[in-house]
Amino acid sequence: MSEKTSVAVLVSGGGSNMVALVDSMLQDGAHPGHPCLVLSNNADAGGLAKAAERGIATAVVDHRPFGPDRAAFEAELIKPILDAGAEVVCLAGFMRVLTAGFVSQFEGRMLNIHPSLLPKYKGLHTHARALEAGDAKHGCSVHEVTPLLDDGPVLGQAEVPILPGDTPDQLASRVLVQEHRLYPLVLSRFLRGERAPVYLD
Q: Cα 46–50–55 angle (5° rounding)?
């Protein structure tokens, strides 16, 4: 079997999608990926402790000292990624918008999970927006990251029905279950060179 691909995962909070990703890599001996780094812009991110418990290297680059200078922040952010030898980057609840300058350095090698059925509801508050629109279904998408927000090629989607009386939080919790199924599957396929979208329900 060929050498595993080194994967860095970027988080800002609890890191539940990160856990789904790294556990799939650590527990499946045939998985083509290996988690080499979990990186956060928030020193208090719960995902850092979960990564450390799994023996994964962690790093923090706080965005706040850089103020509005995103380029300066990203110049520091990329250092631990390169130092770790990451070949692929997965965004898993990383709550900073990355500039074209950063994204271009990982063109074709960066994935993100977004809580909507793209191209619907790019950006924030996706669950509330789906409810306000009266949609019958909602879900999540894994896509390649491009300089345009939530705009890259979709590699996979999972749907959930919207139920009568759903609140944004209730809908979000059901979508999150699907995120944890979808993201590891798409990453594994992506690392094997499979780019055709996969759809779960």
A: 145
Check 114, 138, 143, 180 and give the catalytic one. Answer: 114
113-201 has which CATH code?
3.40.50.170
For the annotated binding site for (6R)-10-formyltetrahydrofolate, the residues are 70, 112
| CATH superfamily placement of domain 1-106 | Formyl transferase, N-terminal domain (3.40.50.170)
| Residue 114 known to be catalytic | yes
Going by the annotation, the residues of the binding site are 15-17, 70, 112
Q: How far apart are CA 21 and CA 39, in angstroms?
A: 14
pTM here is 0.96
pLDDT in tens, the chain (201 residues): 359 999 999 999 999 999 999 999 999 999 999 999 999 999 999 999 999 999 999 999 999 999 999 999 999 999 999 999 999 999 999 999 999 999 999 999 999 999 999 999 999 999 999 999 999 999 999 999 999 999 999 999 999 999 999 999 999 999 999 999 999 999 999 999 999 999 998
